[in-house]
Write a structure and sequence with these properties.
The protein is built from seven helices and seven strands; from the N terminus they run βαααββββββαααα. The protein is mainly alpha-helical. Helix 1 packs across helix 5 and helix 4 runs antiparallel to helix 5. Bound molecules: zinc ion (2 copies). The site of one zinc ion (ZN) has 6 residues, from strand 5.
Length: about 300
């Protein structure tokens, strides 16, 4: 039987904190400050990510391309590798510094709840940590200390949650890292062959042992990250197509939202209509604005 008044369900199970009036002080977000999570582990992982890309840049440029006698080979591969590495780092920066879809803190006030005009029996979820009313499909992240709309997972490598607003950048980041890993692996194979032909004398400006060590390290890095990021890329595209976040898949949550086609789901994340902007970390996709919870604070 339905209850006559809207019910407040607290998913974090803090029975005593269900009263909206206990949510003090309400904290409002400053809209002009850059989003950045102050988490030591995430910052270290983010710095390691950039250093790994710079190491690959160093080996590709100074060990393989600059000493090469074939100028066209160096120019073509140098341009492709540097462009992809730049796009990978730009995607990483956007994924890290974009608000993933944080729900305003402290909005579980009486006025706000009344303004939602809930129907009798309608269940509303409230987060006791943020003191906010959770929109459907939002989850609380203990690292970001915020509720995140359509939270997929918290990724320490980008030091941020992957959610509604930054999933595009995260997917691009995994794609560009997979591409530079593959490209550097192909170049390492060609360079090894070239060095064998040349008896290791003129194929690098470094000594033969140093050249071998640097190439093997790049080979390991390339293989590891090619596997890791291409699996992540595939998983992300699958969850976008099926419109089911990582958390919803893990928790086997029942689908309460409308089913759309795969193409519509892709457009919801990457922008409408399909264009080259899908592949650009500099273009901000226009996310759906029909959600009433998003703009009422
Ligand atoms: Zn929360
Ligand atoms: Zn998070």
């Amino acid at each position: 039987m339905k209850s006559p008044v809207p019910r407040f369900r607290d998913v974090e199970r803090q029975a005593g904190s269900l009263q909206p009036t206990q949510c003090v002080p309400p904290c409002h977000d400053r809209p002009n400050t850059m989003w950045f999570i102050r988490d030591a582990c995430g910052i270290v992982c983010g710095v390691i990510t950039w250093m790994l890309v710079f190491f690959a840049e160093f080996v590709v440029l100074f060990v393989m391309l600059l000493p090469s006698k074939n100028l066209t080979y160096s120019l073509v591969n140098g341009t492709i590798f540097n462009s992809l590495a730049f796009l990978a780092l730009a995607s990483h920066f956007r994924a890290m510094c974009t608000d993933p879809g944080a729900v305003p803190k402290g909005n579980a006030t009486k006025e706000y709840i009344e303004s939602l005009q809930l129907k009798p029996g309608q269940v509303v979820y409230k987060c006791p940590k943020c003191c906010s009313i959770k929109p459907d499909r939002a989850h609380h992240c203990s690292v970001c200390k915020r509720c995140i709309r359509k939270m997929d997972h918290h990724c320490p490598w980008v030091n941020n949650c992957v959610g509604e607003n930054n999933q595009k950048y995260f997917v691009l980041f995994t794609m560009y890292i997979a591409l530079i890993s593959l490209h550097s692996l192909v170049m390492v194979v060609f360079h090894f062959l070239y060095c064998f032909e040349d008896d290791w004398t003129k194929c690098s400006s470094f000594s033969p042992p140093a050249t071998v060590i640097l190439l093997i390290l790049l080979c390991f890095e390339g293989l590891l990250f090619l596997i890791f990021t291409s699996v992540m890329f595939g998983t992300q595209v699958h969850s976008i197509c099926t419109d089911e976040t990582g958390i919803e898949q893990l928790k086997k949550e029942e689908r309460r939202w409308a089913k759309k086609t795969k193409w519509m789901n892709m457009k919801a994340v990457f922008g409408h209509p399909f264009s080259i902007a899908w592949f650009s970390p500099f273009s901000t996709p226009d996310h759906g604005k029909a959600d009433p919870y998003q703009y009422v604070v």
